[in-house]
Amino acid sequence: MQPFGLLVVLCFSFYVVPLCLSKSVNGQDVLHNSPRYKRAPKGKKGKGKFDPQELDKPLLDENSLEEEYAERTFVYKAGKKTKPKNINKKPKKSKEANKLDRHPPRPQHDAKAPPNRMKRVFVSEEGVKWPNRTIPYEIDTTTYTNATNIKSIFSTAVDRFNEAGCLQWIPRTTETEYIRVVGNEARCASYVGHLGWSQQTLWIYESGCIYIDISLHEMLHAAGTMHEQSRAQDRNQLLSFNWAAVSSGNELNYQGYSLYNAREYDLSSVLQYGLTYGSTTYMYVNDPDLEYLTQIQQTDLSFYDKAELNAFYQCADDCNDPPVCQNGGFVKQINGVCSCECVDGLTGPDCTELDTSPECGGLVNLTVGSKDKIEMFGYQNNLTCTWLIKGPEKTKIKVEVDSLDLPTSEQDNCYHYIEIRDYLSGTEGKLICGDSGGAVFTKKNLGPTNMMVVRFDSEQYSAVTPGKGFSMTVTAEPSACSILPCKYPATCVDGATTDEYTCVCNEGYSGTNCDTVAATATVTDSFEDDFTTLMTHSSTGVDFQWSTNKYSNLNGFTKTASDGDLMATLRNNLFATAFYYTYRAKLETSAVFERANRCLRFDYAIADNNVGDAYPTTLTVRVFSDSGTSSVVFDENTGNDWTTGEVDLPAVDNMKIEFEGVYGFQHLIVDNIRVTPYLCNKGDPCGNVCQNGGICELIVDSASRCKCPLGFTGEFCQNDLCASVDCNQGICEVLSESQTQCNCSTGWFGEFCDVDPCENTTCKHGSCEGLSENQTKCNCEEGWFGELCTLHACEVVNCNQGSCEVVSETETRCNCTPGWFGEFCDVDPCANVICNQGSCEILSENHTHCICDDGWFGTSCNIDPCSNTNCNNGQCEALLETQTQCNCDEGWEGEMCDSQTLVTYKCDFETEIEETCFLVESTDDDYDFTREMGSTLTERTGPDSAYNGSYFKYAEASNHFPGDVASLESNVNFNAGTHCLSLAINMKGSHVGSLSILTKDGYETIIQQKFKGKQSKNWFLYAKELSLSTSTKIIIETVRGGSNIRNQRGDIAVDDIQLTSSPCPTTSDNNDDTSANGKGKGPVNIIKPVVDPFRQNKP
C-alpha cells in the first residue's frame, strides 16, 4: 500500500491532483458472494467445507476460491515441483480495470507565482488527510439503474474499511465537504486525498466496477494513497517492468513516486495492479512463485493496507496505554478502542498466542545456526495447525521439507497442505503437498527475516483420507545481509556468522559495501532503478522531489529516455499542497569517490515554450568537496531535444555531486548520468574502443587496453575465431584461443553440420528422426505402423457410432460413444422404448429405464397424479404416483389453498435492506448489531451459522465494555390488538450478559421477557403474545456481559424475528424443531402472557 499522499507525482507536468483508478473491472460479485468466501475471524476468507470433486474439473472457474488456492499451490512429486494441471489462465472478473485508468487533472491547480516568503522544507502532504478522521459520503442513486446493488456492495466495503482503523466513512448528513459516489461513467476512479471540495467525486461504474475490492481500492485513494507499484523506493526489489509495452496513456499508473511507507511492499495490497494490461504483460514478479499474490480477489483490505492506514492517520496517537504488538502485529484504534491487529495464525492481546488446533502447532525458538524438527505423522482430519518459528536478530529462517505425503487430486491440487509464508508473515503463503521431500524455503529479506509462520490444514477437505504426513527441519541461519549492508544496489551473500557477508558489486563500484568508486572506474545512472543507485533524493533545501517517467511532453513534443526506458523529470507532483514556480528538487550522490580527475556527462532537455518569462526553469550542477563548492547552471532551452552537458570534476577529497532543478515555465528532463575517469577535455580512453564484449582497462593517464572474451582476439577484440567457420545447421563453439567445434542442431551431423541422414527417407505417416550420420528412424503418427509408417489397421473397420482404436499392428477395437453397444457400436437399447413424459436411460446393452419428468410416474411415465386435483390459489405437486400436495401462493393456505393467511412482519437479515422487517438499529445505545454469515469473531461464543438461511445479527462482545448496550427497535405503527412475537436466540458463552424484550408506550417501558447469562449452546426459539397499540415500540435490548473488556465470550445473536397480528400458537413443551439448516436447534418455548419473573415498571 502506498504512503498516503506523501509528495506523490502526477500525470502531467502542470497537473497536481490526478485521478487514480482501480486495478479491476467487469462482472459482479460471483466469488465474493459465495458462502465459502464468507468473513471469518479478522476478516480472512472463511474456509468452510469444500467439495473435493471441484478440484478435478478439467478447468477451474477463474473466479472461484479453488482457482485462487490452485495458483498458490506447489506440488512435489517424484522429486519435481509442479503446479495443478487445471489452473485457469483467464483474467479474473474483478481484475480487468487497468484499461479504464485515466487521470484527469484537478481543475485550477496549476503552479502559482511564488509568495514573498516560501518555506523550502520537503514534508509529507498533511493536506491530503481528511479532517477529524472522517470521510462523509453519499451514493448518487440517480446515476445507477440498480441502486440496491451499489448500496449493498459499497456498504460492505465501508464496513470493512471502518473495521481497519480510526479513519471512518460515515453517511453524509449536513457536511459540505464529502465524497459523492457515481456510476454513470465508464471508470473506476478517485482523486487522491481530501481536496476541500463539496461533492468530491468517486466513480464506481455500474457496468463493471461494483466489487468490494474495487470499492476499497478507490476508497484508499480517496483517503490519500497511491498504487503499490508506484513505490519507487522499493518496488524493484519485487517487480520488473516491461516498459517497452507501456503506452503514454497508461504510464501514470506505473510511474515511480517517492512515497513514505510504514510497512514492507505488499504484493497482495488492494492497491497492487495485476501483472497484465489486457493480454500484454506490464510487470513481472522477480520471484515467479509469488505471482499469485497479485491475483488474489480481496474482500477486505490486506493486513499491510490496514497497517499503512493506521500509521498514516496516526491512529495509535489517541491510545492512552497502547498495547505492544509483537510478531509483526500493529496497533489499531477504532472509536477510541486500541488493540493489536495480528497476522493470520497469531492472536492474543499482544499477538504472542497461536491460533492452532490443540493437537499440533507451537512456538519454535532457535539460536544462531540451530535446527529443530516439525513432524506430523499419522495426523487426523479437521486440523488447522500453526507454528511460529523465531531466531535471534541477524538470522534468517530456513525450512527444509525432509519428507512429504499429503493427498492430492487427479489434477494435482492439494487436499491437505502446508502453508509456507517465506515472503511476508501477514500475506497468504505458498501451499505445498505431494509425495516428495526436498523443497527448501528461506525467508525473504523483506521485513523481519528471523521469523516465519508455517501452517497446516486438513480441515478444508476433511472428507479426504489423510496421507502419511510430513517432517520439516527448521534452521535459524546467520544472516548479516538482513541489515542490508550492500549499496547501489549490490548483491549480498551471507557468511558463516552473523557479522560475515560479501557484497558482489555492480560495475563501477567496489569496497566492502560496494559504496566506493575507484579512480579508474566509470559509474552511470539512467534511472532504470528509479532513484536507488548513483543519484538519490536529497532531503535538504527542497520543496518536492524528482519523478521517473517513460514519456515527457516538451512543448508538444513527446520525448522518451535518451538511454534505457526511464528518465528523471521535474514535475509538479503534489496532490493537495499549493505548488509554486521556483520550487526546488534535488538529486545527490552518496558514494565515496577516490581522489582522481573525472568528467561528469549527462543528457538533458529544456523545452522552448515561454522563453524569457518571469519564472525560467533551471538546472544547476554543484560539486561539493573539502576544497569548496563549484556550480554550473544550465538554463538555455535545448529546442525540445536531448543535449549533453559536461562538467569537469578535478581531483578532490569527499566529493559529492548535486543536481538541482528549479521548477519554471519550461519542462526539464535528465537522463544517462555518467562519471568517467579523466577530465572532459582529455577524452575518454575507453570510449567505445573495445568490440565484441571486450572490457576496457586503463593502463596510464591516457592509454587503455582491451581484455577480450574467449573466441576474440586483436587489439580491439575485433577478430572472431568463429567468423571463418561455417557450421551450416549448427553453432560454432570456441574451445580455446585457437580451436573451435560445430555443435549441430537436432537431426544434423558431420564436422560442419551439413549431413542430413533423413534426406532420402520418406515416412509416409510420420516424421523422420536422424539417429546418426547413416541411420534414421520413422516416428509414426498414432495408429500407423511399419518401417515407413504405411500400415493402419482401422482402414477396413466400420465402428458406426464409435471410433476405431488400433491396439496393435493386427488388432483393433471399437470405442462406442455413450448409449451405443455392440462389437461395432451399432446397438441402441432405447430404440424401441417409449417413455412418454420422460427420457430413456440405458443401464446396459439389454436393460433400459424410463426417467420421468417432474410430476409424472409409471414405468412408461404416463401417469399424472395432479390431473384430478384442484389447488385453487396454488400449484399441485405430485409426491408419489397416488399422492399429491398443494403448494399455496403467498397469502393463501389450507389443504386446497382456499384460505387467506395473515401478513407477517419478518426480519431474517438475508439482505441488507428488508422490506418486511419492522426493526432497525437503535440510535440511543452504545453500539450496533453486526450482520454476519457463518461464525462470529470470537471463539466459543455465538452461533456457528444462521438459524435460518445464511445471515443473522449479533451483538459483538469484543472491543466493547461490560454494560455496553446494543438495541434493535421497531420503526412501524402496528394495528392495535394481540400480536405474536417470535424469534430465534443464541446466548452461548461464559461472559454472556442479558437479552430483554421490551415494549414502550410513551414514557412507560415494560420488560416483557429477560434472559440472563448463558442459555444454551444452540439456537432456541422464544415466542410471546404482546398487546400493542398504534404507538407501541418493540425493543430487543442486549447488555454486554463480563467484568472487563477482555471477557469477550459474550456474543448474543438473534435471527428469524417474526411479528404476526394473531395470537401465538398453542404451547408445545417438546417441539423439537430441526427445520431450517437442521442442526443445533433446541425446543420452542411458546409463552402466553403470565406473571413474568423479570417484569418491572421500568427497565
TrEMBL record:
InterPro entries: ConA-like_dom_sf, CUB_dom, EGF, EGF-like_Ca-bd_dom, MAM_dom, MetalloPept_cat_dom_sf, Peptidase_M12A, Peptidase_Metallo. Disulfide bonds join C486-C503, C505-C514, C686-C696, C708-C717, C758-C768, C780-C789, C816-C825, C866-C876, C888-C897. Keywords: Disulfide bond, EGF-like domain, Hydrolase, Metal-binding, Metalloprotease, Protease, Signal, Zinc. It comes from the Eukaryota. Residues 477-515, 682-718, 754-790, 795-826, 862-898 form the EGF-like domain. Residues 501-682, 905-1066 form the MAM domain. Residues 360-477 form the CUB domain. Residues 48-60, 94-112 have a biased composition (Basic and acidic residues). Residues 1061-1077 have a biased composition (Polar residues). GO terms for biological process: proteolysis. Residues 116-316 form the Peptidase M12A domain. Binds 1 zinc ion per subunit. Residues 30-63, 80-116, 1061-1099 are annotated as: Disordered. Residues 801-908 form the SRCR domain. Coiled coil: none annotated. Residues 1-27 form the signal peptide. One of its GO terms (molecular function) is zinc ion binding. Its EC number is 3.4.24.-. It holds the Pfam family Astacin. SMART domains: CUB (SM00042), EGF (SM00181), EGF_CA (SM00179), MAM (SM00137), ZnMc (SM00235). Zn(2+) binds at H217, H221, H227. Residues 35-47, 80-93 have a biased composition (Basic residues). GO terms for cellular component: membrane. Its cofactor is Zn(2+). This is Metalloendopeptidase.
